[in-house]
Amino acid sequence: MKLQFDESVEAFRAEFLGWLDENRPPVEEMQTDPLRSSAYIPEWSRTFTQRMFDDGWLVPGWPPERGGRNAGPIETLVYMEELSRARLPRTANPQGLGIIAPSLLDYGTEEQIEQYAMPLLRAEIAACLGMSEPDAGSDLANLKTRAVLDGDNYVLNGQKVWTSGAGYADFCFLFCRTNPDAPKHKGISIILMPMDTPGVTVRPLKEIVAPEFPDLAEVFLDDVVLPASNIVGDVNNGWAMAGGSLAHERSMVWLMGVMNIESAMVELLEVAPTRLANLPIEERAVAADALVGSHIDAVAARCLGYRGFARYVKSGSAPEQALMKAYTSEARRDLVRLAAELFGPDALQAATGRYGATGSLDAYFESFGTTISAGSSEIQRNIIAERVLGLPRG
Questions:
Q1: What is the number of alpha carbons within 13 Å of residue 161 lying toward its C-beta?
Q2: Domain 127-236: assigned CATH number
Q3: CA triplet 240, 244, 246: central angle to 5 degrees?
Q4: Lower CB count within 10 Å: N or C terminus of the chain?
Q5: pLDDT grade, residue 246 (50/70/90)?
Q6: One-character DSSP codes across 153-202
Q7: pLDDT digits over 126-169, tens only?
Q8: Under CATH, to which class is 252-388 assigned?
Q9: Domain spans of the chain, in order of start
């Protein structure tokens, strides 16, 4: 079987690649200015996102006024593939573009869309997502942050943690409990919180990988006063909206996972012959077998992803998509672990860029984070068991 696209899709691909050639950010700026830090978004990234929006390449499947060109699902797939191959980020604020902006377009008022969503798409502002708490990591319904109605305002108290981009965000898409007496899935709301509101404190969390550029943070709320008009959608309907918000994040997550594995595999195969030759003969066959196994994982991931994507386009749902997040993140973790083992002591010196090159300890440490973000592997297995296989709750 040979997978290929029709002429119109290939013409779309060629048009996008031509645009990238003319508009890609300067390599020097990308190398010298980190993509993300605890305090700012690089100017080259803002400029690139703005150009994509203006020329309809930010979210091709959306209409032109939202930064797209009304492209179909297959064109969008090709677009994401080429963007990943070029290793170019559409934005330095992925949660803002991938989750918060589309959620505001789905559930927000016209005023909220104009004040928050459109500037977010144009990279004029950035956003963070306030979901996780110390006692509500993978269990959003267990959140404790309270929002109490006081006249025309809500008064918020609580804490968020693992909040990506909180250090540079202009506002937070915050999940809070507005009805403590309702069942825990029923009393949740979403409110838009400007990060410069009095009572908001951000404390960066240093990471093992690139501790000088922390992206995660704790956010503390002490008597934070926000207008009731900042509520997104209906009060106490946050749980239902959370499903829609995370669906935006996961709609193409399988492709990003596949591309991450494949790019890591390409890097490793370039040095594998030399690294294997340096191993004792009794270890060489075992390492080579593991390398082949990782390559098989990468091929299987792409085939499974394409199959699920085809089903999704045809029917709007696909069980394969429920599998892909856990599968690709764990396959990449296994691959970079193998790479670090092949590099041996050199893995300590192999780090380059924000997360390090394949074969470095930085890449190995970072790989564990991908099995947690966007839904941990354990939670993904629960979803697969209950929603795909129809098994009873344990």
A1: 12
A2: 2.40.110.10
A3: 110
A4: N
A5: low
A6: EEEEEEEE-S-TTTTT-SEEEEEEES-TTS-TTTSEEEEEEETTSTTEEE
A7: 999 999 999 876 678 889 999 999 999 999 999 999 999 999 99
A8: mainly alpha
A9: 7-92, 127-236, 252-388
